[in-house]
Amino acid sequence: MLRTRGPGSILDPPLGGRREAIERELKKLRAEREELDGRIRLLESQLEAGPAGFNGAAAGKGVGDDACGGSGACQSRVGNGFAPDGSLPADMIYRYSRHLLLPDFGVEGQRKLSQSSILVVGAGGLGSPLALYLAACGVGNFLLRC
């Protein structure tokens, strides 16, 4: 006779179906946790920036001039944009918020990137978009050799 109630009955869903449902729920919750962790990191970096949060970079202060010599080399020197206490100003938090949300990157990664130096040789089919992307992601010193 078939059992209709209790464990192992025909009305009891198989273990595999419940397992898949639990795994889906775990995956969903982990994704939500990662999103929340990213938001927490972003808010913490905004707190570090303090109420002023603006260091005058958009007004032209702290930004060096582009120097293009006759040798075909162009170099732009830009201050790293961090406040003296090492926190990110509000404009940098807004500009690089996607970087700051990455679990393995964050504020420390952005700080390292802004202190790095990059040399790109050639601005052709690959060098041109590469130069654009590197400049947009906040590289500190950028040298382009054509």
From TrEMBL:
Domain THIF-type NAD/FAD binding fold residues, every copy: 96-143
Pfam families this protein is in? ThiF
Q: What is the protein name given in its UniProt record? A: Fanconi-associated nuclease 1-like protein
Q: Which organism is it from?
A: Zea mays
Q: Which GO terms describe its molecular function?
A: ubiquitin-like modifier activating enzyme activity
InterPro entries, sorted: ThiF_NAD_FAD-bd, Ubiquitin-activating_enz
Q: Which domain of life is it from?
A: Eukaryota
